[in-house]
Amino acid sequence: MKYIDEYRDAEAAQHYAQAIAKLTTRPWTIMEVCGGQTHAIVKFGIDELLPPQITLLHGPGCPVCVTPLELIDKAVQLAARPNLIFTSFGDMLRVPGTQGDLLSAKANGGDVRMVYSPLDAVKLAEQNPTKQVVFFAVGFETTAPANAMAVHQAYLRGLDNFSLLVSHVLVPPALEALLSSPKNRVQAFLAAGHVCVIMGYTEYEPLAQKYHIPIVVTGFEPLDILQGVYMTVKQLEEGRAEVENQYSRAVRRDGNLPAQDVIREVFEIVPRKWRGIANIPRSGLGLRAKYASFDAEKRFNLTEYSVEESSQCISGLVLQGINKPHECPAFGTLCTPENPLGATMVSSEGACAAYYRYRRVTNKATAGIKEAQS
Fold first, then answer.
1. Distance of CA 76 to CAs 229, 262, 302, Å?
2. pLDDT per residue over 284-303, tens digit each?
3. Is residue 267 within 8 Å of 168, Cβ to Cβ?
4. Residues whose CB is less than 8 angstroms from the CB of residue 129 and which lie 6 or more positions away in sequence, other chains included
5. pLDDT at 241
6. Of 75, 170, 251, 338, which has the fewest CB atoms closer than 10 Å, so is most exposed?
7. pTM metric for this prediction
8. Across the strands, what pairs with 133?
9. All domains of the chain in start order, with CATH
10. Which of 122, 157, 126 is nearest to 137 (CA)?
């Protein structure tokens, strides 16, 4: 219980909230990057502890949410193939594409399996030499080392029946895309601590200087987030724009160098489409030429195409911090975790899922409809 007492102490939280209120002299808008931070903020009511001048926006830090529709469709297509085992972490199974989700593919006879590690998929490939095994490699820099190691192990073992469907995205280019947008409202960032465990935070220093914006690497417990907000507001009030590290118990400036070496060995930086946002240059990871035979899109000749998002879903605006989930007309009515219009409602790190689970607020238009019906 020591961990909970230390990082979820109510008196300490009130102390930080009072310190932030005393420090704040004008309105500030801060974006937490990670969906895990968003869920902690909404679950524990951290935003409601803050003074009214502080606005927290929810950012694009949910890799499941930003995986493009086209790739979900390709996953569903692969899962329907005979003699193919499609593997994924559990949080991707219910993400909707235009052709259904992976659970519906499984219900229709596809061999879809949830795994806890990409190395589990490598083991499946060894155990099933007559079948192709595909792993859905989704994530930020956090999951890239394990996925890279899986490919490297398959390469060393000569497995020609293992491949990745890759949807790796990188955080710093996405932050720059938000900052350069004419719709940008962000004045400071709480950076995702787990990403920085791998990559460190030197990549954020040029962004802080170029856009004169504070960036504070922050953990995920309530007191982590409140301390991160305090450090951010202090910089804003003092006119500073630096990268600071709240999550020092886990993050070092240079990150995990061996993990970075594994990533660089297997992956290279490529453009990547972010669902609901845009194509962002140099914002993704793709397999290097040496490992191209492990690319599922190439192995199975999956063609490039483009599809449109649901006109009823504003998840792209939510991911950019332009709208809050409850401002969507479909929130909680047409769009629920059981019948999601977008990934932000079904992902365990999605902002819409957090609001639905912990707040159950509705927008004014929906409230008006319900009142009229009653």
1. 40, 29, 12
2. 999 999 999 999 999 999 98
3. yes
4. 161
5. 98
6. 338
7. 0.91
8. 85, 162
9. 1-310 (3.40.50.11740), 315-373 (no CATH)
10. 122
